Amino acid sequence: MKVHEVVQSSAPDPLTELDKRFYSPGEVAQLAGLHASTILNYIHSGRLYAVKLSDRTYRIPNRAVRKMLAPETVRPPTIVERPDAHVDIAESDREPEWPWPEE
């Protein structure tokens, strides 16, 4: 009698494959098991952060991909408060010159 050993292969963990800084919508779709158009819909609706390089080209940062696939692995951003730092409010709230410059 022959005994066959059954080896179950588990799907690769998408988080271990995230070694790039930026991903295309197609790459994110493949990692998430979704269609590329779904990823583009997520980008257009604001559900997924992406950098728009041109009319048809987007790149999704590693952190945004991890936040979508496994949000528990992403730490919230750290806010550093510097009370002694100088902020020139007059410069930042300056009204534009009138009349408007002609182009």
- Please work out how many helical segments DSSP would assign: 4
SSE sequence, one letter per element: EHHEEHH
Share of residues in helices: 25-40%
What is the average per-residue confidence, as pLDDT, rounded to a whole number?
Answer: 79
How many angstroms does the end-to-end distance come to?
88 Å
| Biggest sheet overview | 3 strands, antiparallel
Which secondary-structure class do the elements indicate?
alpha+beta
Assembly annotation: single chain
Describe it.
The protein is 29% helix and 8% strand. With 103 residues, it is of the alpha+beta class. Strand 2 (51-52) and strand 3 (58-61) form a beta hairpin.
Explain the layout of strands and helices.
Layout (H helix, E strand, L loop, with lengths): L21 E2 L1 H8 L3 H10 L5 E2 L5 E4 H8 L19 H4 L11
Question: Key features?
Answer:
103 residues; alpha+beta; three-stranded antiparallel β-sheet; 4 helices; 3 strands; extended
Short description:
With 103 residues, the protein is an alpha+beta fold. The chain is built from four helices and three strands; from the N terminus they run E-H-H-E-E-H-H.
